[in-house]
């Protein structure tokens, strides 16, 4: 596309523009200040999408008088296996429009619809935490998120964990597990890659995680837990405003018996609270899964996520998720792949799982 998508209001001269490098600092300042914005609205995701995953980013913003009033980051994911979609934001749990007023919000949504029609995608998907578009088809019965305030005092946070789960954390402490902040992904990636393969999920390429570390700097942190000097669990977390979001995590086959997952997430929470972070975001889970139960056991209440759709070429809302029965044989077979084979094939497939 060569033309900028635009809408305008005679009263405010509101226009919709595409993000260019010269406006990135303004975009970032808006995201940092807007209550509806999340870590996944940050401009750096555009470079990660394009350079590490090979997808085109269309980052739209509403402005008037040189001031940004709303943003809508979009990624165009087009693959043979999983179709053709415009998503805000692919590979992220949250997205959608973040705006300071209804006029900017509606102008951005209309621009996204126009872009979806021009690109002739199957569908446009906006990943909102709250229902925004009641007239659109919505998937709000599959995914939930878990978010909870944390206290500056780690003892208060420990006591807030329900008794059975608290016992698992203490079990990890008694096993003399140790946690460290890593400056790179050398320990994280092998643990994560093996862990997702055992769950039947294709892994992202190592360069994707390196791109996250390079792009977001101190806002992307790896925490690794070791037992007797051997790493057993690791997680890549994102930091945004006063929130910590443990996002990509995994463990070795020994991790469960050692309570290394429980200890890992406790250590992320403990360190975050001491460093001034006030909200722990456990991220997205599917209802009825082990990760859903694990997070509920920490005393977090599930909050439904509202993924809203504008259908273009598709007839129905997409159902690309591991709970879909048509993917069961694939998942079972993937679990049996040798790890080196899974690490080669995984990135080819995972880049389409937006």
Overview of the structural elements:
The protein has 354 residues and is α+β, with helices and mostly antiparallel strands. Helix content is 35%, strand content 28%. The protein folds into 2 domains: 15-139 and 306-329, 3-Layer(aba) Sandwich (Aminopeptidase), CATH 3.40.630; 144-304, 3-Layer(aba) Sandwich (Aminopeptidase), CATH 3.40.630. It contains 12 helices and 15 strands. The strands form 2 sheets. Strands 1, 2, 3, 4, 5, 6, 7 and 15 form an 8-stranded mixed beta sheet that branches. Strands 9-10-11-12-13-8-14 form a 7-stranded mixed beta sheet. The longest helix has 18 residues, at 102-119. The relative contact order is 0.16.
Overall spatial form:
globular
Q: Give the count of helical stretches.
A: 12
Number of beta strands: 15
Distance between the termini: 22 Å
Compressed to H and E, one letter per element, the order equals: EHHEEEEHEEEHHEHHEEEHHEHEEHH
- CATH superfamily grouping of the largest domain: Gcn5-related N-acetyltransferase (GNAT)
Main sheet characteristics: 8 strands, mixed
| Total of domains | 2
The pLDDT mean sits at 89
Global structural class: alpha+beta
Radius of gyration: 21 Å
Provide the low-confidence segments as ranges.
Answer: 1-11
Just give the CATH class of the largest domain. Alpha Beta
Strand content: 25-35%
CATH architecture annotation of the largest domain:
3-Layer(aba) Sandwich
Helix content: 25-40%
Coiled coil: 102-129
Protein name: Peptidoglycan bridge formation protein FemAB
InterPro entries: Acyl_CoA_acyltransferase, BioF2-like_GNAT_dom, PEP-CTERM_FemAB-rel, PG_Glycine_Bridge_Synth
Pfam families: Acetyltransf_6
């Amino acid at each position: 596309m060569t033309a900028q998508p635009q809408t305008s209001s005679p009263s405010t001269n509101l226009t919709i523009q595409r993000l260019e490098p010269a406006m990135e600092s303004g975009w970032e300042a808006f995201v940092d200040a807007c209550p509806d914005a999340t870590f996944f609205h940050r401009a750096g995701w555009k470079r990660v999408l394009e350079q590490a995953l090979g997808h085109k980013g269309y980052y739209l913003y509403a402005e008037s008088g040189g001031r940004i009033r709303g943003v809508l980051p979009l990624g165009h994911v087009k693959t043979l296996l999983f179709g053709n979609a415009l998503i805000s934001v692919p590979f992220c749990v949250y997205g959608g429009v973040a705006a300071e007023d209804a006029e900017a919000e509606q102008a951005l949504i209309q621009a996204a619809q126009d872009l979806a029609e021009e690109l002739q995608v199957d569908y446009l998907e906006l990943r909102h935490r709250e229902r925004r578009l009641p007239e659109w088809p919505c998937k709000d019965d599959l995914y939930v998120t878990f978010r909870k305030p944390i206290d500056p005092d780690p003892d208060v946070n420990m006591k807030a964990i329900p008794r059975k789960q608290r016992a698992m954390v203490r079990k990890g402490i008694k096993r003399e597990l140790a946690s460290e902040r890593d400056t790179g992904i050398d320990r994280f990636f092998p643990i994560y890659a093996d862990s997702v393969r055992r769950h039947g999920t294709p892994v992202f390429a190592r360069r994707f995680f390196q791109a996250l570390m390079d792009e977001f700097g101190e806002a992307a942190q790896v925490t690794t837990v070791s037992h007797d000097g051997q790493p057993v669990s690791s997680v890549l977390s994102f930091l945004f405003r006063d929130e910590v979001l443990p996002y990509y995590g995994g463990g070795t086959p020994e991790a469960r018996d050692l309570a290394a997952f429980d200890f890992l997430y406790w250590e992320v929470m403990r360190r975050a609270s001491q460093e001034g972070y006030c909200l722990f975001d456990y991220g997205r889970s599917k209802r009825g899964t082990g990760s859903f139960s694990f997070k509920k056991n920490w005393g977090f209440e599930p909050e439904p996520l509202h993924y809203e759709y504008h259908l273009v070429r598709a007839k129905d809302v997409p159902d690309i998720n591991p709970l879909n029965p048509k993917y069961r044989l694939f998942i079972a077979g993937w679990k049996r792949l040798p790890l080196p084979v899974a690490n080669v094939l995984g990135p080819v497939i995972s880049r389409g799982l937006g």
